[in-house]
Amino acid sequence: QVQLQESGPGLVKPSETLSLTCTVSGGSISDYYWSWIRQPPGKGLEWIGHIYYNGSTKCNPSLKSRVTISGDTSKSQFSLNVSSVTAADTAVYFCARVSNYGDLDHWGQGTLVTVSS
Amino acid sequence: SFEMTQPPSVSVSPGQTARITCSADALPKQYAYWFQQKPGQAPVLIIYKDIERPSGIPERFSASFSSSGTTVTLTISGVQAEDEADYFCQSEDSSGIVVFGGGTKLTVV
User: Fold this and answer.
1) Which pLDDT value is given to residue B28?
2) Do B88 and A45 touch (CB under 8 A)?
3) Which residues contact A62 (CB under 8 A, 6 or more apart)?
4) Chain B closest CA to A32's CA: distance in Å?
5) Cα–Cα distance, A108 to A3 (Å, whole number)
6) Candidates A35, A45, A105; nearest CB to B45
C-alpha cells in the first residue's frame, strides 16, 4: 500500500520561503504524477501543482510565480517551495499521488504550515 | 477561468438520500471525481472516472451526470451518521489545471 508523508517546518515567517518534502513509501515513484494540494483552515481545497517522475511540472497559475516543485526519485521524495509567503499561505499542505485514471488516489495526512512572525 | 460550484451545505436524516451537486458552465472532457473529508483527516477518493467507485467504498455512494453535461451529482443512499463530512468535487480544465469545487458540508440530523 502506497503511503505518503509530508515533512517540514510548521512555522514560517512572512516573506520567507515555505519548504516541504513528501516521502513516498510502499510503491514506486516512477510512472506517476505527484501533487501538492493545500487547505486553509476551515476552507476548501486548492491544487498547487504536480510533478511527473521525469521532472516535468505543472502549477496552478494563481501561484505559479512563487511555486517550485522538484523531485528526487532516488529518495522517493518530491518537494514544494513557496516563496514570499504571507498569512494567506497558512494552510494544511497535502501531498498526493495521481493514479493512472487521473484521480488523487493516495494522500498524505497533511501538515499545517503557519505563516507568522 | 473554470470553476466548479457546490452548495455550501446539505442536511439529511439518517436513512434518507443525500444529493450533492457540482455545477460548471461546461464540464470539460476530463473526468469528474468526488472526495469525502472528515475533520482533521485527509480527503478520501470516493468516486473516480465520473461514476466509478474505488474498492472499499460502500455501494450507497454513486454519481451521475446531468443530460446537459453541466452538473455532476453525488448521491448517498441510506445515509448513515458516519457519512457526515465535507464532500468535494474535482476535475481539470482544458489545460490540465486541477480544479476543486468549494465543498459541501453534509449534516446528518
Assistant:
1) 64
2) yes
3) none
4) 15
5) 7
6) A105
Interval A34-69: pLDDT, tens: 999 999 999 999 999 999 988 899 999 999 799 999
User: What gap in Å lies between CA A33 and CA A50, rounded to an integer?
Assistant: 6
Phi, psi dihedral angles at B83 (to 5 degrees): -85, -5
Return phi, psi of residue A88, to 5°: -65, -15
Distance from CA of B5 to the nearest CA of A (A): 12
Query: Rg of chain A's alpha carbons, rounded to an integer?
Result: 13
CA dihedral of A96, A117, A84, A53, whole degrees rounded to 10:
-20
Per-residue pLDDT of chain B (109 residues; tens, 9 = 90+): 688 999 999 999 999 999 999 998 766 678 899 999 999 999 999 999 999 999 999 999 999 988 777 899 999 999 999 999 999 999 998 888 999 999 999 999 9
Instruction: Give me the residue from A47, A99, A108 closest to B42, CB to CB.
Output: A108
Residue A110, helix vs strand vs coil: coil
Residue A109 contacts B, CB cutoff 8 Å:
yes
Q: Which residues of B touch A47 (CB under 8 A)?
A: 97-100
